[in-house]
Amino acid sequence: MNVFLPAIGAMKSPAIMSDREVLRCSLWILAFAISSVCPLSARYFLSPAKGGSLPPPGTHMQVTAFCLRERIMHVSAGWRDQENVRACRLRHTEETPNSYVCNSTFCVEEPIVIWTAQLKGLGRTMNSQYVLCIHGGCEDIVPERFTAREEQEHLSVLRQSLQAGRTVLEAGGTAVDATESAVMVLEDSPLFNAGRGSVFTHQGTNEMDASIMNGRDLQAGAVAGTSRIQNPVRAARLVMDRSAHVLLIGEGAEAFAREQGLHPVDPEYFATRRRWEEYVQAGGQNVSGKGSGVDAAHLGTVGAVCLDRQGNVAASSSTGGTMNKTHGRVGDSPLIGAGTYANNATCAVACTGEGEYFIRTVAAHRVSVLIELGGLSLEQACDQVLSEIKDLGGMGGMIAVDPSGHAAAVHLTQGMFRGLLREGEEPRVAMYGSK
């Protein structure tokens, strides 16, 4: 049994449709409208399985939906004819704990059948509790590198980022809104490698990338190689919401941002004293070569993942890239599936680290695949992907959240700037160790 949406363009003009066809189309539209707005509704369209055929009209079919962690994992449909029992299945998934089965029987009335069923407990409802997780990059973050004042400054900005997200979510905002707001706070701080705190390229300039993704409908937007956009994540959101594209780069991205009302800033806005001193200390060495070994002290990105009250997940990332990078280098942060990914069926992920390795492993999307097809938990999937990256010689970390409210912050370095906010609880921030 395959899942597909019939092409609206294939429908006949009402003027030449029979009463039966008009009724059928009306019922289809009604069923689609109801199931679209109801989070507990599942829609399936039957078509012949490979090498098989649809059951004849009048056949009663038994449909079984196997659900895991409040989402459909596979659906099977079977019927009995004079010869034997026939069945077809969307996807095979081994049964694991926290799973259950819902059954429904319906009668085949047409060669193509729509099944709309209310499955108890399926999907998240309006009373979901929000979860917001943020990161400010993972590095060799150890107490010896920071004074007490510097430590508190970093943790204070992380709290401000969580508070920005909380303000949005408490007002009924979406996960997309919350991740954007949280990341903008980190971009505005000179302490983190994004926006104002971006590192310098080998040519002594600043080039920034950002992306955002909505797990509800898989919409996404990104910008790369910008040097005059104060908040690149805001520009990425505009690409997602107001363009037909996913990724815009360089001058094209900046022109689009201006058209959408974002005023450009002078490039000197990003030239902070701290980052310039780090650039000078690097000696102008070009680290763009393969296997050059990026200093773990300069792995920086910021990101946020969120589950909102409506049960939707989203992810955002923003970065200044790697210190001393070649002009035009683009890492994983603006690449959907590599550094950022969100899907309501599985999770939302934001990565940080040596972008080339996250691109090669399509890291963020791979976490989603390991959950959906491998049956791994959120943290297990993150651990496995980072282990694969480590085996390739890379370093980094990631944060993630799933539709059930589980959150993870996993990294290969000695620390990660991170924060977690759950509805009704006090925000938690940390930078050292893994807990």
Describe the 3D structure.
The chain is built from 9 helices and 18 strands. The protein is of the alpha+beta class and 435 residues long. The strands form 4 sheets. The protein has an 8-stranded mixed beta sheet with strand order 10-9-8-12-11-7-17-18. The two termini are 45 Å apart.
Please state the CA-atom Rg, rounded to the nearest Å.
24 Å
What class do helices, strands and sheet pairing give? alpha+beta
**SS summary, helix count:** 9
What does the main sheet amount to? 8 strands, mixed
Strand fraction = 25-35%
Mean pLDDT: 77
Low-confidence stretches: 1-14, 30-53, 61-127, 285-297
What is the string of SSEs from the N terminus onward? Answer: HEEEEEEEHHEEHEHHEEEEHHHEEEE
Q: Could you give the distance between the termini?
A: 45 Å
Which assembly state applies to the chains in this document?
Answer: single chain
Strand order of the largest sheet: 10-9-8-12-11-7-17-18
Total beta strand runs: 18
Overall morphology: globular
Proportion of residues in helical segments: 25-40%
